Amino acid sequence: MNKWKAYFSVGLWKHSFRLKKFLSYWLAVFSVIWTFTEFSGYFFTAADGSPWKPNVWVFLGIGILAAMWMSRPHLRRTVLLPDHEVTLEIDVNDMYARQDGAWIIPCNCCFLHSHIDEQAIVVQFRNRFFPSSADFDQVLAQALQNVPYELNTVRESQVKKYPIGTVVQIQLHGTRQTAYLLATSELNPQGKGEPNLNHLEEALKSLWTYIALNGNTEPIMIPILGSGRHRLVVSRFVIIGMIVKTFLAGLSQRKFTKRLTIVMQPKAFKQNQYNLDEIESYFSCAGKFEC
Fold first, then answer.
1. Helix 236-253 to helix 197-214 angle, to the nearest 10 degrees?
2. Torsion of CA 160, 161, 167, 173, to 10 degrees
3. Other CB atoms within 10 Å distance of the CB of residue 218
4. Do 117 and 220 form a contact (C-beta atoms < 8 A)?
5. What's the CA gap between 8 and 137, in Å, rounded?
6. Is the pLDDT of residue 233 over 90?
7. Which of 18, 88, 105, 245 has the CB geometry, 3.0–4.6 Å to 283, for a possible disulfide?
8. What is the Cα–Cα distance from 241 to 233, expressed in whole angstroms?
9. Buried b / exposed e along 92-103 (16+ C-beta atoms within 10 A)
10. Where are the domains of the chain?
């Protein structure tokens, strides 16, 4: 439902629907239809023997509908970068609705999740794919058993704090679906994420290195990290730029995927009326210019 709301939002049509494009499609479609009807008039006749002529308003309507469909905005934009042999994609969608690539899931450096609200990406992951919080904690503990840590006090309890950029790789039981949980922020004593853009950049660099050394070559899907509950005071465009730049830098060292999909939540897209055309244009020049 949220995706449909995003599709019919004012922002998408305002930024992505072009009247000139619609008219060009309409003229092309109408010309083809009209040429076909004129041609068919030589073979079909009306009851009085005159050439068959269909209702012109019907064909005008068909042309308008066809042109609307052909010029409609898209919530998914894909750009191929031939120099890097990789595809960049922006998709307004629920990340977990797509299972054609590995998921990147942002976490705090303590990998705590019990105090976070239900809309957090890591909590959605836990609730959808694990029977209970205890089962999820068990999987995390097993994956982190050889990772160095230090003790930290959060919400008056001693917890293990792992370095920024720590990656936990999880293979969902009974499936080929992979998830990478990434420590992108530290927690304050009250259990809230501390906003730090440098930490996010450091985490992204560690992520690409980890996937290059330990991951598969499957497509990667990543949300716009830090734009919600991590309270970074920068726009999503800045974060998208950081994701793409660190990704291409990591890819220059070792090729580990053929597609990176940046997923934007439909609710956030609708509320902020982001311009997907601008993001698509940025993708087109990524790796060539500082744009």
1. 30
2. 30
3. 17
4. no
5. 39
6. no
7. 88
8. 15
9. bbebbeeeebbb
10. 18-70, 76-285
Catalogue the E-assigned strands of the chain.
76-81, 86-92, 102-108, 150-154, 157-161, 167-171, 178-187, 193-194, 220-223, 259-264
CB 103 within 8 A of CB 178: yes
Distance CA 19, CA 23 (A): 6
Retrieve residue 123's tokens: 């909590």
The CATH fold of domain 76-285: Leucine Aminopeptidase, subunit E; domain 1 (3.40.220)
Could you report the per-residue pLDDT of 117-159, keeping only the tens digit for each?
888 899 999 999 999 999 999 999 999 999 999 998 888 888 9
* pLDDT tens-digit series, residues 60-85: 788 888 888 888 889 999 999 988 88
Q: How far apart are CA 129 and CA 159, in angstroms?
A: 24
Stronger pLDDT, 233 or 120, i.e. the higher one: 120
Phi, psi for residue 11 in degrees, rounded to 5: -60, -45
Give the model confidence (pLDDT) of 163-219 as tens digits: 999 999 999 988 889 999 999 999 888 878 888 899 999 999 999 999 999 988 899
CA–CA dist 257, 89 (Å, integer): 13
Residue reference for tokens 């917890």: 159
Structure tokens at 76: 């998914």
* Region label for 72, one of left (φ > 0), alpha (ψ between -120 and 50) or beta (otherwise): beta
The chain-wide mean pLDDT, for the chain, equals: 87
| The token pair that represents 267 in the structure block | 């609710």
